[in-house]
Amino acid sequence: MIKGSGVGPAFCAGGPTGSPFPKAFLHHSYPGTQLEDALAIAKEPGVGTITLDIGANDILQFLSHTCGFPATFTCSQEQIEAEIGHVTANVGSILAQLRAAAPEAKIIFVSQYNPYPTVLKPEGTGDATVEALNGALKGVAATYGVGFANTARVINFSGTHGGPEAGDIPTVCVFTAMCPGGVFNPASPNADIHPTKAGYAAMAGVVGATYLSH
Q1: Peptide bond just before 115 cis, omega within 30 deg
Q2: Of 68, 75, 151, 176, which has the fewest beta carbons less than 10 angstroms from its beta carbon?
Q3: Packed helices 34-42 and 77-101: angle between N→C axes, nearest 10 degrees
Q4: Which region holds residue 138: left if phi is over 0, alpha if psi is between -120 and 50, else beta?
Q5: Share of residues in the chain with pLDDT > 90 (%)
């Protein structure tokens, strides 16, 4: 979002280590980076609400390329904390620029959630790691007067409300596409971390409540 794809104006970056893809896949084309496009829109008259959902690709690609996830998990706590700090710093930079471009707008940051309950090792640490990331993101959001919509509290209901992480699986199956055929199967090529229609509706409820209370 910040630096662009580096392979020409017609392509968008697919995350830090992902393959670039055509900007035509997005809602509209734009000449520079996603951030430059967002700032141009934020400065337009009448823009009163901005939502930002960013950072998931950074985390997922870090887990894959650095930690060997999901086949294994070789990262130390220090490496995880460093990645959380990296993502938080990038989000802080984005939010600072959006706030400067639209000082009166309501800005809502949409949190990350854990589509892999029980998979991150040691087992049961996935929700805790995501909540650590969300805590850091919530702090930087508050710095710029930005509301924080914690969708993990719905999608990972059990693990974020004191229950076992394994208890997340029913809600993950309803709210994401991680359960092809109705069975939680992260190894399946058809498993998809993105929300289902029910998941988007649940996330919209969290975003709406944050908007109204912010």
Answers
A1: no
A2: 68
A3: 40
A4: alpha
A5: 77
Give the pLDDT confidence of 68-111 residue by residue, as tens digits: 988 888 999 899 999 999 999 999 999 999 999 999 999 999 99
> Of 160, 139, 158, nearest to 148 (Cα)?
139
* Tokens representing residue 112 in the block: 């990350």
Q: What is the mean pLDDT of the chain?
A: 93
What angle is formed at CA 143 by the lines to CA 139 and CA 147, rounded to 5 degrees? 70
- Is residue 39 within 8 Å of residue 101, measured between CB atoms? yes
Q: For residue 149, is pLDDT > 80?
A: yes
Q: Where are the domains of the chain?
A: 1-33, 43-213
Taking the model in full, what pTM does it have?
A: 0.92
| Cα–Cα dist 198/37, whole Å | 29
Buried b (16+ CB within 10 A) or exposed e, 53-76: ebbbbbbbebbeeebebeeeeebe
Q: Which H or E element spans position 138?
A: helix 126-143
Strands 192-195 and 49-52: unpaired
The first and second tokens of residue 164, run together, are 């076992």
Cite the beta strand spans of 83-189 per DSSP E.
106-110, 147-149, 176-177
Strand partners, 12: 21
Q: What is the pLDDT of residues 131-140, one digit of tens each?
A: 999 999 999 9
List the structure tokens of 81.
Answer: 């904390």
Q: What CATH number labels 43-213?
A: 3.40.50.1110
